[in-house]
Design a protein that fits this description.
The structure holds two protein chains of two kinds. By secondary structure, chain A is of the alpha+beta class. Chain A folds into three domains: 113 residues, Butyryl-Coa Dehydrogenase, subunit A, domain 1; 106 residues, Butyryl-CoA Dehydrogenase, subunit A, domain 2; 149 residues, Butyryl-CoA Dehydrogenase, subunit A, domain 3, CATH 1.20.140. Chain A has eleven helices and eight strands. In chain A, the strands form two sheets. A four-stranded mixed β-sheet of chain A has the order 1-4-5-8, covered by helices on one side. In chain A, helix 7 runs antiparallel to helix 8, helix 7 packs parallel to helix 9 and helix 8 runs antiparallel to helix 9. Chain B has a domain of 125 residues: Butyryl-CoA Dehydrogenase, subunit A, domain 3, CATH 1.20.140. In chain B, 48% of the residues lie in helices and 13% in strands. Chain B has a five-stranded antiparallel β-sheet with strand order 1-7-8-4-3. A three-stranded mixed β-sheet of chain B has the order 2-5-6, covered by helices on one side. Classes of the chains: A alpha+beta, B alpha+beta.
Chain lengths: 402, 424
């Protein structure tokens, strides 16, 4: 039966995450925005706490590992770990996106491992912090064009290439590297490899200075004859041209709603703060009166909030579908596309509504507006999401609709 | 016109005179008395207490799966929308009227019975705004104007069902469960920029035990043939109330008010000049909360209809852009076109979910003013954009009446600005 309210037990979980956002993240938000590259040591204790809760089952799988799809088979509707994870992320990003991105052991690499690792790998890589290395200087959204190579040599793969924009790259224990087994075989030959941070030949070249999410480190690597055990390949070593990209892309189907959730959380932070500031200025939104019969600021805020609501519901829909074993590639991209552009629109709109105060460093609004832009870029840009959506709707291949 | 003149349905419904009068009035212009087709409303049996459908109540899980009952209803309406409404839409738009047989088929589909408690002849165990929203969405895929013409009386039935007392329900609600439900409309809107339904200029004042109403309501669907109206008017208490007004009341007149779209619904201005109704005509004893709820439920209904129309746009442009060739390949192969289609799909899905959420909160007995406002804001802005993109994607072909997109463009403008007329 149609109901779009979050069940009570998941609301309680979200409430816990909200407290972390308010009491742990917000007080140090500005500090680590200013001190880019300083390690937010406050998070170590929090990470331990979250893992303890996760182990006890209290988290309902609301960590990076929550995206693992377990077989269905249960009767009835499920509001399970995908939804719990997304709700947790929304709340934590209501606190601070940069700090969430650098939560120890909660990296996108952890989600990748959770999505496609076998049981042995899950054991071996459990408890480690894993970053994700996909982008290269000449392969961004066009991830099929990656040049980093992996060559099997005895029991080891030898990796060579260059990786940029690796979130948590300088802090993580493991880097999940995308590399091709055979550049002539295209997408199907691209596999992900788990490279421990201390492996010789994995060379940290630089940590970026960024527009926002400064609490999170973004690293560039060079791989020079970097040797890893062949058991570190995630998924199948077969180059199955029929299946193509499916293996590695599976991670994205599961992580797009999470990034959409980040955008939703940030957007809500902006809207709440702006609602408060406008109320102090005597402007309140009256939901029953027509928008245009209200002050322009109220009408604008209502508009922003409406897009936020659409983004939020699309995001939860994608997670709900994952929980209920429904294919959600289309809905995941819709959520990411809507949430990505909405959080930028909302954050910039809120700075505008708050005027000079919103623009100054006295308010977190200006920081959120800088943080927001990455959410419409990483894990598939706005344009890539629209391509994915359009190809599915129009029944077009990537060769027809490029 | 010829089809109408020879329609046996008119005779079967005993509506020939009324229909002829309506057409005469619309073509003559000026305000004409609303005759109400001579129907008298009398309680067939007395209810001791008002009949209310139980509501669904709170549910424990987030779920987007319709019930089997809802799926069946949507499927039946979908067939009707595709096979009957869509083919009739162009002519109904041009002639400013919906053929009576379509109105009758709408009744047969049980659209009115949704709003009526079981003991008064309704069909649904529970009252459900979600079920109504799903039904309206399916109708919207057929045609918004015809949907409005069909649903206009259902809004009166819903208002009576939600807020009528035992006497009001005994007299007025039961006929809606019959084969020939009254024509009727819920009139909240007035002609004024920035019109606020919470501050109507239509006024009700006491005279002895009676109410006297004065004012003018705008874009009232099928007002000229209306037999029973629910009209929003300011009361001396300072807040507006909902008044039941019979079609034949003295001082009640209508004038055709054709608009940009929704033309099949024969929209008209409804004028009230010292219309006298008894004290018992006021719904919910003038409770301001009931009036506000009425405004909000109407907005959810408009959202649901606009979601259906936006879905029709989406479904129409996809095959078109795949078939239309320019510069040697289908235009769907161009990102500028493909992204426009993707944007339609994304915003449509957001509109739909926000509408469902508002409706499901209403069913749960939760506050839904905020959710209704957010859904309306989305449907007003993105619904209109989808309507405009629909025309744009067909280019010059979209601008001519050979394709339905120009009608959807006109209809979708209504979604975010009209008040009342529909209820979930």
């Amino acid at each position: 039966m149609i109901n779009l309210e979050i069940p009570g037990r998941l609301r309680a979980l979200a409430q816990q995450a909200n407290e972390v956002a308010r009491e742990v993240f917000r007080p140090i938000s500005r500090k680590y925005d200013r001190e880019e590259h300083a390690y937010p040591k406050e998070l170590d204790m929090l990470a331990a706490l979250m893992e303890g809760m996760e182990a006890s089952g209290e988290m309902e799988g609301a960590g990076a590992a929550g995206v693992r799809r377990t077989g269905g088979g249960e009767e009835g509707v499920r509001n399970g770990s995908n939804m719990a994870t997304v709700l947790g992320i929304i709340e934590l990003c209501y606190g601070d996106v940069g700090l969430l991105l650098t939560m120890p052991r909660q990296g996108l690499g952890n989600s990748a491992i959770a999505s496609v690792a076998n049981e042995e790998q899950l054991q071996r890589f459990g408890g480690k912090w894993a970053a994700m290395a996909i982008t290269e200087p000449e392969a961004g959204s066009d991830s099929a064009a990656i040049k980093t190579t992996a060559v099997l040599d005895g029991d080891e793969y030898v990796l060579n290439g260059e990786k940029i924009f690796v979130t948590s790259g300088s802090r993580a224990d493991l880097i999940v590297v995308w590399a091709t087994l055979d550049r002539s075989k295209g997408r199907a030959a691209i596999k992900s490899f788990v490279v421990p941070r201390e492996t010789p030949g994995l060379i940290l070249e630089r940590v970026e200075h960024k527009l926002g999410i400064r609490a999170s480190d973004t690293a560039n690597f060079r791989l020079e004859n970097c040797r890893i055990p062949k058991e570190n390949l995630l998924g199948s070593p077969e180059i199955d041209t029929a299946k193509g990209f499916a293996g590695v892309m599976q991670t994205f189907d599961n992580t797009r709603p999470l990034v959409a959730g980040m955008a939703v959380g940030l957007a809500r932070a902006c809207i709440e703060e702006t609602t408060r500031l406008l109320a102090e200025a005597g402007v309140r939104v009256d939901p029953t009166r027509p928008a245009y019969a209200q002050p322009a600021a109220a009408a604008r805020l209502l508009e922003l909030e409406a897009d936020y609501e659409a983004a939020r519901l699309l995001t939860i829909q994608a997670a709900w579908m994952a929980d209920n074993a429904k294919p959600n590639s289309l809905q995941a991209s819709m959520a990411k596309a809507k949430a990505g552009r909405t959080c930028v629109e909302v954050a910039l709109g809120c700075v505008e509504l708050a005027g000079g105060l919103g623009y100054s460093e006295e308010s977190l609004l200006e920081k959120w507006a800088r943080d927001a832009k990455i959410l419409d870029i990483f894990e598939g840009t706005q344009q890539i999401q629209l391509l994915i959506i359009a190809r599915q709707l129009l029944g077009k291949s990537s060769a027809e609709l490029r | 016109m010829r089809a109408l003149a020879s329609s046996p349905t008119l005779d079967r419904l005993g509506a020939r005179k009324a229909a002829e009068r309506a057409i005469y009035r619309a073509s003559k212009g000026g305000f004409q008395a609303v005759a109400g087709a001579g129907r008298t409303f009398a309680a067939a049996r007395k209810l001791r207490s008002p009949a209310r459908q139980p509501v669904a109540g709170k549910r424990s899980m987030f779920d987007l799966t319709p019930s089997a009952e809802q799926e069946m209803l949507v499927e039946a309406i979908g067939d009707f929308a595709g096979s009957a409404m869509r083919p009739a839409a162009g002519q109904a738009d041009a002639e400013l009227r919906t053929p009576p047989e379509l109105l009758a088929q709408g009744v047969e589909l049980g659209l009115f019975a949704l709003a009526i408690p079981e003991e008064l002849g309704g069909v649904m165990e529970e009252r459900s705004a979600v079920t109504a929203a799903l039904a309206y969405e399916a109708l919207g895929r057929g045609d918004m104007g015809i949907a409005l013409a069909i649903l206009a009386p259902a809004a009166v039935a819903t208002a009576l069902s939600l807020w009528g007392d035992a006497e009001q329900q005994s007299r007025y609600l039961e006929p809606f469960a019959g084969e020939q439900p009254p024509a009727g409309a819920l009139a909240l809107l007035e002609d004024a920029p920035l019109f606020d339904p919470l501050a109507p200029t239509t006024r009700a004042r006491r005279q002895g035990a009676d109410w006297l109403l004065d004012g003018e309501k705008a874009l009232v669907p099928r007002a000229a043939e209306g037999e029973l109206f629910v009209v929003g008017a300011q009361t001396p208490s300072g807040s507006p109330g909902l008044f039941i007004i019979e079609g034949g009341s003295g001082g009640l007149s209508a004038q055709a008010q054709p608009a940009m779209g929704l033309r099949a619904a024969a929209t008209a201005r409804l004028r009230l000049e010292e219309v006298r109704v008894p004290a018992s005509a006021l719904l919910a004893e003038g409770d301001p909360a009931a009036y506000r709820e009425c405004v909000q439920r109407a907005r959810i209904a408009w959202c649901a209809l606009s979601v259906g129309v936006a879905q029709a746009v989406r479904d129409y442009v996809i095959p078109y852009v795949k078939e239309r060739v320019a510069f040697g390949e289908p235009i769907a192969n161009r990102q500028a076109v493909a992204f426009a289609v993707a944007d339609i799909a994304v915003e449509l899905e957001g509109m739909r979910l926000a509408t469902w959420r508002a409706a499901s909160r209403a069913d749960a007995g939760s506050e839904f003013a905020r959710e209704a406002a957010l859904a309306r804001a989305l449907c007003a802005r993105h619904g209109m954009r989808i309507g405009a993109e629909g025309v744009q994607l067909l280019g010059g072909h979209g601008y001519v009446k050979e394709h339905p997109v120009e009608r959807w463009y006109r209809d979708l403008r209504a979604a975010g600005l009209l008040e009342g007329a529909l209820l979930v």
